[in-house]
Amino acid sequence: MPNGKRKKARMVLFTRSCGEYLKKYLEERDDILPFVFINPSATGPACIRTIQDRFNRYKKDLGIHLSPHTLRHTFAAHLAIKGMPLAFIQDLLGHDSPHQKQLYARLYSHARKEMYDEWM
């Protein structure tokens, strides 16, 4: 389990399909580093600045707002729309503060409204 913000352990879940893509990606790389994201010189893990630079490049190329945080919120929104209980979503994202729970409660409420509108 990798460590996230504030050195908090995070479990990273992904689908079988994602696992197949990840395996193919790692097999095609020319290095033997034990990291998924490597630095530009392929000598170690990518640092935060490298990740930020890549996201800024993607954001500019795509013409949309994009950040690691955007991906987290999109992930949470999709889970909420599919009906995953709020407590599970918060646990997957490692949230335990009341402020973060309020944020996801609003997100979950919005997802329920969208689901309701779809059925009406």
UniProtKB/TrEMBL annotation:
The keyword Heme does not apply. It comes from the Bacteria. PANTHER family: INTEGRASE_RECOMBINASE PROTEIN MJ0367-RELATED, PHAGE INTEGRASE-RELATED. This is Tyrosine-type recombinase/integrase. It holds the Pfam family Phage_integrase. Keywords: DNA recombination, DNA-binding. It comes from Metabacillus rhizosphaerae. Gene3D superfamilies: Intergrase catalytic core. SUPFAM superfamilies: DNA breaking-rejoining enzymes. Residues 1-120 form the Tyr recombinase domain. Belongs to the 'phage' integrase family.
